[in-house]
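USER: If only I could read backbone structure tokens as easily as an amino acid sequence. It would mean a lot if you studied the pair and described how this chain folds. Here is the record:
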Amino acid sequence: MHIEKISEIIAHFIGLFEMTTDEMRLRTNYAEGAGPGADGPALPDQDAFTAAFSSDLQLKDYDPGINYKSGSYEIEFGPARHFGRVFEESIEKLAAIAGKDIPLPHFGDPTDIVLTDEPDLTVFAGPGSAISHVLQVNALYDDDYLDMTDGVHAPRDTSFVIEQLADFSTKAEIFTPFASLHRTDTYDGALKIAEDLQNYTRNARNTEDSGVTSPDSDVTHHFATTEPMDDKVYVNGKAETDIPVLDDFLPDRGLAKLPEEPDDSNTSVEQTDPSGSSLDVTAGANLVVNVASVINTGVITSVTAVMGNYHQVDAISQAFVYSDNDEIAATLHSSGHSAEEVGTVAKNIALFEHSTFEPSSHAEPVSAESTFPNSWRVSVIDGDVSFVQWIEQYHFVTDNDTMTVTTSGSEATVLTGGNTSINFSSFFQMGLQYDLVIIGGNVLDINSITQVSLLYDNDWVRAEGDLDPGADLQTGNNLIWNFASIHNVGTGGPFEAMPDYMAATQKAIEDRDANMPEGLSFDVNFQGYAGLNVLYITGNLYDMTIIKQVSILGDSDDVTQAASTILENNPDATVTIDTGNNAVVNIAEIVDYDSFGQTTYLAGQLYSDAILIQGGLVEHDTTQPQPADDRLANEVIAFLDNDDPAGGDCADGVINAGNDFSWSSTHPADVMQAMVA
């Protein structure tokens, strides 16, 4: 560095330090010392200072390298060793052993000669367990109160809606016996779930007669079968070939529909025509959705060998309970649509599928020469392995609106519903690929879907005063949709008996024998393989996917249409009241890749069960609402303007107290608490 050179120059000039080399230390420094005195001792003469001094050493530059030569270790340089005494001692020891009458092995037996030790099998660590628990809960309370008149209308008590929904939940339990399953991470807990499912299936098989029963007139269907047909769609207990499409049944949400993207047009959208007198009220149009999808490929293998038992259980239980008993005033009934005319559409849809994995069409063709594996790579997992996906989704939504509406001489739009609550869960597990998986214990393969939909949509539409019956009403057109699908890949073919070489393979792995058993080299499943990638699980394997979906919606609206005081100025006023168009949707899908081949060897017993339960219940509740106490309602919307709305300065009004969005979270109340205009 330049700064170091400068510092060195300065130090030389000011005398801060003195540099002395090793060569100068070997010389006599005459500047600092003094010569010997006259009376001093005489120093001997030194040959180095004489003129005749000479040296045969050659001066060379400094070389940092080191030249090393090892010493000689040849045997002829070592001391002589006498072997005579050693041989004599060996003879003496053999004679002593012979005198004790100890049997000795015969010389020449091949087992007595060990040339080299056999290498042990190199074992690699296998993949671990994968456990996921998902809990999604949405709670939304949106009970609105709206009064567009100058009168006094007491709010109503809506607690009866919660009580009725709780009663609906109790009645739905007869259709969903697997809803009470509790989350578990242990093999004992998974085995208990498998045993409960199997016991219920056996009991249902013993008591099953026609498959469809109707113990009550309010039960739309009660269907249970322990032998669901593959690739058949069950809709409300009936086998069909086509899967219904959700888009064909979704109700029109009206004012709550999401706005469309504007067109890229330069055309003016200005409206110069005078606005008419209309009132559009939407108190329903709520949307509650649960969506869950699980694709499980925990261990990808073409051949599986199970040394224990194999338990496979697939279960789907679906239930809905709803009440859509509307009361419409006689004055309005002639122009409206009653609940009987446009009722609630409720569907339980279930599908069981089985298939085998089909390799890609672009795979390399198998050569004409038969090639079989002659080497292997082994991975071992000590203990049990679990692949658990547990998903629970819950919705609790109430939208009980109480309104007194009237025309105002202008266009008025009121939206107190239109709430949207969504739970979405998607799980995709990609495991490692093996050519052969050996499971030393049992296999538990459990897939279960439980769906419950509850809807309370009892509405009251009343008329107050001298009212012109020019109203268009929609109090029904609700949708309840439960869709469940379980698709197993790789278990469609029959299980095969365990061959002897699979047991030999298990023993070779446990003994750490590096030699691959000969039987694996002739298995037709491994034809074309140069080597095998093997996974050995010493314990049990349980693959469990549980999905539980519960959607509860209470939408009991009480709408009173009051006579307008300005009808003489608005003879053509139109009124549209919509308290229905709600949608409760549960969608669940499980795709379980048990094997990527068509061969599963089983040494124990096979327990394979499947059950489907579908039930629907329609309640005709006649509970009448009661006035609330003095407590303030959740939302109070009061219009207190007494000015004449027929004046030239009046404007259109839009009241939006709905459109609450809940996405896998909890909202105890609406954002808007009070609005005064």
Observations:
- The chain has one domain: 1-24+131-252+279-357+373-637.
- The radius of gyration is 45 Å.
- The chain has seven helices and 35 strands.
- The first strand starts at residue 123 and ends at 125.
